[in-house]
Amino acid sequence: MFNWIGLYTLIRREVERTFRIxxxxxxxxxxxxxxxIFIFGFVLGRKIELVGGVPYMLFVFPGILMMNMLTxxxxxxxxxLFVSRWVRNxxxxxxxxxxxxxxxxxxxxxxxxxxxxxxxxxLLIGLLFGAVHIAHPLLFIFYAIGVTTIFALxxxxxxxxxxGFEQLGIFNIFIIMPLSFLGGMFYSIEFLPxxxxxxxxxxxxxxxxxxxxxxxxxxxxxxxMVGATLIIGLILFLGTLVFYLFKKGWRLRE
Length: 254
Fold this sequence. Notes:
This protein is mainly alpha-helical. The protein has helices spanning 4-20, 22-43, 56-86, 90-94, 100-128, 137-161, 165-181, 194-200, 204-217, 224-248. Helix 3 (56-86) crosses helix 9 (204-217), helix 5 crosses helix 6 (137-161) and helix 6 packs parallel to helix 10 (224-248). The mean pLDDT is 93.
């Protein structure tokens, strides 16, 4: 029988933690998003011609929005799980009357909640600059929840794997940020040399950002079906892997 009360308690704990350190979890990312929108969208946008038939501000905004949501989702659960292992209060969750599936859902929903809160904040900032446009609301929600779910699951893997805070930083510095910048966040892949363009289509971030751009502007450069399949496939694969590691107790009972 599903333990709804236990699941709600775990989710509430994760959400309350977000608001306890609100300057770090919400304030800092929103300030960063404001600077990205102002510099790359507003300042540079006045000097750049239309990209894909839309103003540059509108073109870059979906990528900035996506990057901030997925980073928030990843950071939330990776730090939570790592710190819980470090101070050994993860055992309180392990002995609670929760199944492994319920534990995973609790962590993932907490991470998605933070990602969506950041997304809402970025949308409000975007409104100030006239950058918000949502052409396909249902697709917009699909990409927002789908990608934050993927990075919540990746955050769990990082939280389990890391043996120090510096290892957590590896993911943002060497994986998430480079793939985001090289995934067409600030430019059309039509601007790239043919060889680099061919490499870009193997970057999953390209499909995430381009899908969000289509949901916002009805403009896309990727195969949307490939992007949707990639999102669903990654959720199933990463969810299965995380469940297996939790069931095995990998790095949880050390």
